[in-house]
Amino acid sequence: MNPEHLGVIFCVRGTMESLSRLIANLTICLLTVVLIIEYVYRKRALRRDADLNRQKQQQLSLLSQELKTLKNELVRKGEIADQIPLIAKKMTEMLPRSSCATVAVRSVKEFFHAAKAGFFVPIAGSDDYTLEAGAGFPPDWQGNIRVHAGDGILGMALRGKVVLSRNETAEFANRRVSPLSLEGLGVAPDYVAPVFGLSGIAGALVIAGSTVPLEGERKYVSMLADLFSVALKIAALSGSEKSDIWMDPLTGLSSRLHFAKRFEGEIRRTENYGQSLGLFLFDIDEFKKINDTYGHHAGDGVIRNLAGIVRQNTRGSDLVGRFGGDEFMVLLTSTSRERAEAFVEKLRALIGTSEFRIPDCEKPLRITISGGLAMFPAHGQSTPELFRAADDALYEAKRSGRNRIVVARNAGLYGGTSSGSQRDPEDLGGTP
Predict the structure, then answer these.
(1) Contacts of 243 (CB under 8 A, 6+ apart)
(2) Distance of CA 226 to the CA centre of its chain
(3) How confident is the model over 227-250, as a mean pLDDT?
(4) Mean pLDDT of the chain
(5) What is the pLDDT of residue 389?
(6) Which residues on neighbouring strands pair with residue 129, listed in sequence order?
(7) Are 135 and 205 within 8 A, CB to CB?
(8) Burial (CB count <10 Å: 0-12, 13-18, 19+), residue 429
(9) pTM of the full predicted structure?
């Protein structure tokens, strides 16, 4: 083969190799471009998916919050439906004047899930107000604290004779507060509602530290203030505070006669609504030793202090009464056996850890209680049956060691152990 042919062959081969390298490079570039395009496309798709997921999560969060709000509203509406009739019934009974404020304050505190509730009344011969009845306020405020009627939200509500909420007075938040105002004394009222008696404003209900939203609650504040006003007017017209018919004179609790009447009515109401209620009887363990050691005046003081503890730790819809001596009775309305048992055990423990101070005694006394709990309709269908069942359970608690609560048997303890009972349940409506 001549040299010319060889040159042509080498030339063609070189061209083919260059062409192959070019094609390979072009292929690599093309694949690179395709991969870049696919990467960009997938990245954008992932970003779109992430945005969609974020939007869906936000929507789910909003829906969850709406469902939670709706659930809370339904729970609140259920509470309102259950409690308003009970409070209305309680406040429109013939209560003594001295009991009206206590019942109203306890009812309001419970209804609004408030940290504090109080009834402030004018001090005679002064422009100041003081606390007549309170729950959640310092104990030494009652009858001692002085609040100026012209200052803060209290003054605004009294001057306008209207219910005011904290939200409605937000524009005054930056104003300097007087040391004699509620705000100056460290109380930030959620609501203040004037209460009217026969001759004008009798006082003001103050609610603070409520855990329910203020929006939409004003009408219920107004309603409860109106019910309280009606109760005060009924008490003033009937002159019931001058009579011991409805109130135990030593403790200010319900008398046996008033307790019996309310008990009968609650059984009928409970039966009509297919609910249950509880009757709790209890007395002080070895109370005679207190009288024998320190005197009857000391025993009376212990009974009064114990009455205050029980009254402050029961719901506004419940009724606390004194049977006589050192024995008390509590009517637990619209409650289950489980809730009733939990309440009476908590009350027993609270009393057992409380201090009872008496004159001429350096160390405070400690007492315990024994009690019997009976439930309607499980332990009885009438007041005599329920009272006997609770009384027998109380005797059993005493017999088995004191400082304990015994629950009646389903058939009523009087069916098998009534021989221990020392009292006829018909005595419930007798004289103190």
Answers:
(1) 96
(2) 21
(3) 73
(4) 83
(5) 95
(6) 122, 147
(7) no
(8) middle
(9) 0.55
Question: From residue 68, how far is each of 62, 73, 75, 210, 235 by CA, in Å?
Answer: 10, 9, 10, 19, 43
Q: What is the DSSP letter of 422?
A: -
Angle of the 218-238 helix axis to the 3-91 helix axis, nearest 10: 10
Residue that is written with structure tokens 């719901």 in the block: 315
pLDDT band of residue 9 (cuts 50, 70, 90) is low
At 130, is the pLDDT very low, low, confident or very high (cuts 50, 70, 90)?
very high
- 234-246 burial string, b = 16+ CB within 10 Å, else e? bbbeeebeeeeeb
**What 8-state DSSP symbol labels residue 176?**
P
pLDDT above 70 (res 14) = no
| Position 134 pLDDT exceeds 60 | yes
Residue 29 has pLDDT above 70, yes or no: yes
**In this predicted model, what pLDDT tens digit does every residue of 340-399 receive, in sequence order?**
999 999 999 999 999 998 877 778 899 999 999 999 999 998 899 999 999 999 999 999
> Is the pLDDT score of 420 beyond 50?
no
Q: Provide the greatest CA pair distance for the chain.
A: 148
Q: Which residues contact 413 (CB under 8 A, 6 or more apart)?
A: 379, 388, 389, 392, 393, 396
CB 165 within 8 A of CB 196: no
For residue 128, the cross-strand partners are 148
User: Would you say 426 and 257 are in contact if contact means Cβ atoms under 8 Å apart?
Assistant: no
φ and ψ at 214, to 5 degrees? -70, -30
Distance from C-alpha of 44 to C-alpha of 331, rounded to nearest angstrom: 69
In terms of DSSP bridges, do strands 369-376 and 405-407 run parallel, antiparallel, or are they unpaired? parallel
Q: What is the rounded CA–CA span in Å between residue 376 and residue 270?
A: 9
> Cα–Cα distance between 284 and 325 in angstroms, integer?
10
Q: Report residue 36 as tokens.
A: 């870049």
Whole-angstrom Cα distance, residue 366 to residue 368?
7
For β-strands 200-208 and 116-122, DSSP reports them as: antiparallel
Residue from 337, 401, 399, 346 nearest 373 by CA: 337
pLDDT tens profile 65-94: 777 767 766 777 888 887 888 777 777 776
Helix (H, G, I), strand (E, B) or coil at 25: helix
Question: Left, alpha or beta for 203 (phi > 0: left; psi -120 to 50: alpha)?
Answer: left
* Residue position matching structure tokens 């006589």: 324
